[in-house]
Amino acid sequence: MLQRTSWPQKTRELHNHHMDSTVWNAFRFRADDIIIGTYAKSGTTWTQQIISQLIFGGAEGIDVPGLSPWLDMRIMPRAEMLAGLEAQTHRRFIKTHLPVDALVFSPGAKYVYIVRDGRDVAWSLHNHLYYGTDEFYRLINDTPGRVGPALERPPADIRRFFLDWLERDGYPLWSFWENIRTWWNIRHLPNVMLLHFADLKADPAGKIRELAEFLDIAVADDAWPRILEHCSFDYMKRNADKSAPLGGMLWEGGAGRFINKGTNGRWRDVLTDADNRRYRQLSIEQLGADCATWLERGGRA
């Protein structure tokens, strides 16, 4: 006897200085939509670039932020964003930072969720927030409708920032552990693929081909060299204005600051042994041993 698939259901709304999950209640899915999920600073932009290249066959000059909006980012004009997505005729690929239980889930869409070791996330997040311009903070905090406290610029001391982020579970953003846990719990679904940043770094060609297969995208043989080149960090850094939201204008140093280093392990010479033990302890407590190990090392989820 065949068992019916139990699909995730939205059980709450999530609203803060960055996000407003209610936008998904008005979004009209198509059968071939691709949803790119992450906590934040986990490889979102890279995954968007990869999927754009698969959809458009290695084309140059794709305006990825324009085509693939962060749907639940509250500062974006909702009606305009939804209308823009409705007008798209290519296969749509949309970004979210929501946990699964705050997201409308479509059994017909494909979901790609990318993760990164939390210490690498925190290092990238510190760069993102520390170098945000005054305009960045004005938009985040002063756009009408903010729920909760304002977002503040972090201290220069990155270890202090990390420890605060760790002990306050993702502060000043949203819960890190909850986000990872909700997606890990649906990894068995046929339309969900979990990716790890470290695996993409180690074998980009293999992982991109695996992603194409999951998304049912047939790629011409002669397009692969272009796709792989356009998904490299060097290419994205040179063309950062096509990857960073608003061309990178909201960060000191521009788009090159948004597409920063793309490296892991920068925390190794900063965090103490006690810091790392605390991170691992919380990871196991919050996620369980299997998920915690995968989050740290990658490999098969």
Automatic annotation (TrEMBL):
<protein>
    <submittedName>
        <fullName>Sulfotransferase domain-containing protein</fullName>
    </submittedName>
</protein>
<feature type="domain" description="Sulfotransferase">
    <location>
        <begin position="32"/>
        <end position="285"/>
    </location>
</feature>
<dbReference type="InterPro" id="IPR027417">
    <property type="entry name" value="P-loop_NTPase"/>
</dbReference>
<keyword id="KW-0808">Transferase</keyword>
<comment type="similarity">
    <text>Belongs to the sulfotransferase 1 family.</text>
</comment>
<dbReference type="GO" id="GO:0008146">
    <property type="term" value="F:sulfotransferase activity"/>
</dbReference>
<dbReference type="InterPro" id="IPR000863">
    <property type="entry name" value="Sulfotransferase_dom"/>
</dbReference>
<dbReference type="Pfam" id="PF00685">
    <property type="entry name" value="Sulfotransfer_1"/>
</dbReference>
